[in-house]
Amino acid sequence: MQRPPHAPVAAIVQMTSGIDPDANLRVIDRALAAAAAEGAAMAFFPEMSLLLDRDRQRSAAHMQREADSPWPAALADMARRHHIWLHSGSMPLLADGSERRVNRSHVIDDKGEIRARYDKIHMFDVTLPTGENWTESAAYAGGDAIVLVDTPLGRLGFSICYDLRFPELYRALVDGGAELIAIPAAFTVPTGEAHWHPLLRARAIETACHVIAAAQAGTHADGRATFGHSLAVDPWGTVLMDVSLQKDDGAAGYDIGFVAIDAQARKRARDAIPLARSRSVRNIEI
C-alpha cells in the first residue's frame, strides 16, 4: 500500500457473516486486532456483520432494543481494547417503541464511545430477474435522519446497501460536509455483478468523496449468496482497493484490505471539477 505522508489508513473488512452472533463477534475481534496491528486508524465492517439470517422467526430470538442488546457494548469493548475506531457495518435491532426492526450502523471511537448511529433509510423491496424476492420492509422500519460524524479519516457520511441507489441522499451528505462515505452492504450476486462497481464509482465521482464499501461475500448459513468485492474508491472514481481480488484465502473468517485516505485527493478532485459552485438545479422549481 502506498501511503501519502500523514494520510490515515482505513481497514476494510469483508465477512461471510452467519446466524451465530457470537461467532460473528469473534471474527470481528480478530479482524480488529489485525487492523490495529497494521496501524489502521479505523476499521469498516459489512452490513449485518453481527447477524445475517433471512429466517425472521429464527433471528427473532436475538432481537433486542439497543439499550438491552449486548452487541454495541461488545463492539465498544473491542474498539477500546484494540485502540481503534470502527464502523460496525450494521446490525439488526428492535426500534424503540415498536416491534419492528431497524438496520443500524454505529461509529465507535478508540475509547469505546459510540459517536454516532444511523438507521438505514431505504428498504430493499424488489423482485429480481432471477426470481429472487426481497421485502425488507416486512420486518424493518426505515430511518428518517441523515447522519454525519467526525472521524480520524475525515467527516464521515452514513448509508447502508440499498441506500446506494438514491443519489439525493449523498448530495445531502455532501451538503452536510461529508469528506468520505461509508456504504456497508450485502449485495446479491446478480445485482452486484450488474451494478456494484458502477454505483460506487458514481457516488464517489458525484460527491468528490472517498467511498468505503465493506461487503458480505460468499455463501452464508441462511442459504443466501452475496457478491463481495469490498471496495475503496477515491474522489476521482478510481478503485483503490478491491478486497475480493486479494490473494487471501479468508481462513481467519474474514478478508481485509488497507487503504490510505488522502485528503489531497479530495481537494484535487473538487478543485478540478467544482460541482458545489457549478450546481444550479437546486434553484429549479419542479
UniProtKB/TrEMBL annotation:
<feature type="domain" description="CN hydrolase">
    <location>
        <begin position="8"/>
        <end position="263"/>
    </location>
</feature>
<dbReference type="InterPro" id="IPR001110">
    <property type="entry name" value="UPF0012_CS"/>
</dbReference>
<dbReference type="Pfam" id="PF00795">
    <property type="entry name" value="CN_hydrolase"/>
</dbReference>
<dbReference type="InterPro" id="IPR045254">
    <property type="entry name" value="Nit1/2_C-N_Hydrolase"/>
</dbReference>
<keyword id="KW-0378">Hydrolase</keyword>
<dbReference type="GO" id="GO:0016811">
    <property type="term" value="F:hydrolase activity, acting on carbon-nitrogen (but not peptide) bonds, in linear amides"/>
</dbReference>
<dbReference type="InterPro" id="IPR036526">
    <property type="entry name" value="C-N_Hydrolase_sf"/>
</dbReference>
<protein>
    <submittedName>
        <fullName>Nitrilase</fullName>
    </submittedName>
</protein>
<comment type="similarity">
    <text>Belongs to the carbon-nitrogen hydrolase superfamily. NIT1/NIT2 family.</text>
</comment>
<dbReference type="InterPro" id="IPR003010">
    <property type="entry name" value="C-N_Hydrolase"/>
</dbReference>
